[in-house]
User: Fold Phosphatidylglycerol lysyltransferase C-terminal domain-containing protein from Sporomusa termitida.
Amino acid sequence: MFDKYFSQRRYENAHFNFTNLFMWRNIYSIKWAEEHDCLVIKAAYDGQQYMLQPFGPDEAIAPVLEAMSSFFARENLPFVIRGVEKFMVDLIEAWRPGQFNFTGDRDNFDYVYHSKDLIELKGRKYHSKKNHINSFLRSYRNYQYEPLTPEWVPHCIETQLEWCRKKGCDDDPTLQGENNAIIEVFTHWPELNLQGGLITIGGKVEGFTFGEQLNTNMAVIHVEKANPDIRGVYPVINQKFCEHAWQQLEYINREEDMGLEGLRKAKESYYPAKMIEKYIVAFK
Assistant:
């Protein structure tokens, strides 16, 4: 049902797919309904309730926005829509001209790269990435890249739990929530129809990643985790996964940086081809 709505038009927001909503549904209190031939999704985080943009044909957007507005009013909640793509900004403005503030949510802009760049790492700007990869290849000549097939799932869960112990997930609600979301995906791996890859060293899984095709020429990487004590394993699994799973697509969406300085620096270091802008919509 979700895929029906997400395939009706081109979406580039990394969150607009069933997997993302499913794995984060508990953390964000995801609720959904069908209204006026549209999919409507409500969420809540950090004490604020909001909705995502409606998913449906252009002619249904105005009536479904009216229904969403009525819901907010009935529940005595402020009208807030988050993660809004630029084309939807224009449709919302056309619905009630001059009544909304549209605020760019920079911390949640998605980083999109040319897949060819992530695979080939050509040029001086990727020199440090290649150094890390070469160091890894020298140190771990017995490494293997494997597709993430069902028999590897228990081993990836072990790797995730070990990562959590090293990072102190028990003392960090955000990391614990992410851990639960990842385990949820692995628990339902066959049903979700995702693509994944992993790195083994001496037969032990030291890193894994998974994602899916988002639209006709773009993949989205949902998760990438690896042993933080192994230099170079992150750029290796990034490169190998893109090469083996996504080289036929033009773009790779590696999601947002959430305003975290270290994550922003890491994502910028791969030189994105473009950013997917997202907006917060609220009445003036």
Summary: The chain has a mean pLDDT of 97.
